[in-house]
Amino acid sequence: MSASRRSGATDELGPDESGEPGGSDLLAALLDGMDAALCAFDADGVVTHWNREAERILGWTAAEAVGRHGFAGWAVRTADAEEVQARLMSAMGAPGRQVHEFALVTKDGGRVLVRTQSAAVRGPDGKPAGVYCAFSEVHAQIDLERSIALSEALFQDAAWGVVLVDADLRPAVVNAHAARMLGVGRTSVLGRPLGELLAQGVEELEAALTHVLAEGAPPAPAEMWVTVRTPEGEKRRCWRSGFVRLASPLAEEPVPLGVGWLFEDVTEAKQGEQEASLLRFRTNQLHRAARAAAECEDPVEAATVHLDFALAGFADHALVDRVAGTPRAEGEEPSVRLVRLAATPAGAPGPSLLTGAAGLPVRYPEGHPALRCVERAGTVRADAGPVPAERAREWALERQWPGDAVHALCAVLRSRGRTLGVVTFLRGAGRSRFERSDAAYAEDVAVRIATVLDLAEAVRGRPGK
């Protein structure tokens, strides 16, 4: 159905200068294809154009609307008709566009609050020849404004990072908070591959973005560990991320424009959770070890029980060396000799084994961490450092440790004011270095081992033992 129902209407709103037949049909098609409702009036206030969106909103067809004088008696209440007509036609003498809100009447008698934008239409002589009026339901306009306002707020004031990633997985828009978290400027990040922004974790992130482009948003946020390059160096962070797929509303079928990525830094919370979980596990291990050791008839066997329970999730190898001869009392400084008492198997994993029946001292070189631990009566940490694997193996073997050890933690065995020996925990290259929290746990284990070793000496010293 043509959007124009009045002879000469096209000439009034703008002549068809193409000179080709079908110009009016093209205009009608364009008007009917608009997303906004549109009507037009000539200089006398007679409706000349009425498109399909106007028909959808109000129910009046173009055949019923075109040719009527104003909205009086059909599209507005009679009491409001004069005011509405005056406000619409006032656009003929005003520059630019005018915005109004008023209620229109639908064909079935209902009322719709609309927001209109009206402006003058000028003829070939430059004089006003009529008015065009585009209108939409107020709630639809408000929804659009809210969407725009939300977008502006997200990219200005949001307390979490927001990044729009295009279909090539490159940032297209970045808010200020996200730029700070990435350690770059808002403009310098645009169009760059994610691999240039993140040192680690980029594969997981890109896999998530690709999945969202293909399948849509995941049902719940995802927590991702990434390493960010900053001027101060690389920093490992945990980002709780949500994703939404962006599709064009103008296409007949959804065409992905990219992904909206919203994330917040939860590193401190996750580290707190991990530390609390680790503390619970280690406390439980100490409790289980104490119960198992209490059932051992031989106190030395109880020492290996404590060692085995401590090893789980903590280290790859463990050694217990006792001081040869009389245990050192406070203030004594004779040369220290250590004899291996127990050790975990060097090959396949298994329970600790009692060794050192011959009582021969371990060939520790001067300055060995175990010797320094005994001399200081305190915990000592040691690392091979960032060296090639072969050099790290030499470092371990020189210290009489298994060849795969690269991190060491030595805790002194003290009981009744005496140093009984040292327990050494070793980690391979697949684990992180020992931290202070690890040292505190090792010291707790050392106290328990020292207690049972002291008990073993007391038992051996009894008559008949």
Describe this structure in words.
The protein has 465 residues and is of the alpha+beta class. 34% of the residues lie in helices and 27% in strands. The protein has 13 helices and 18 strands. It has helices spanning 9-13, 23-32, 52-58, 62-65, 78-89, 138-154, 176-182, 202-215, 267-293, 299-311, 369-376, 389-398, 436-460; strands at 37-42, 47-50, 98-105, 111-122, 128-137, 161-166, 171-174, 198-200, 222-230, 233-247, 256-265, 317-323, 328-329, 338-343, 353-354, 380-383, 407-415, 418-427. The strands form 3 sheets. Strands 12, 13, 14, 15, 16, 17 and 18 form a 7-stranded antiparallel β-sheet that branches. Strand 1 and strand 2 form a beta hairpin. The longest helix is centred in the middle third of the chain and has 27 residues, at 267-293. Mean pLDDT is 84; it is low at 1-21.
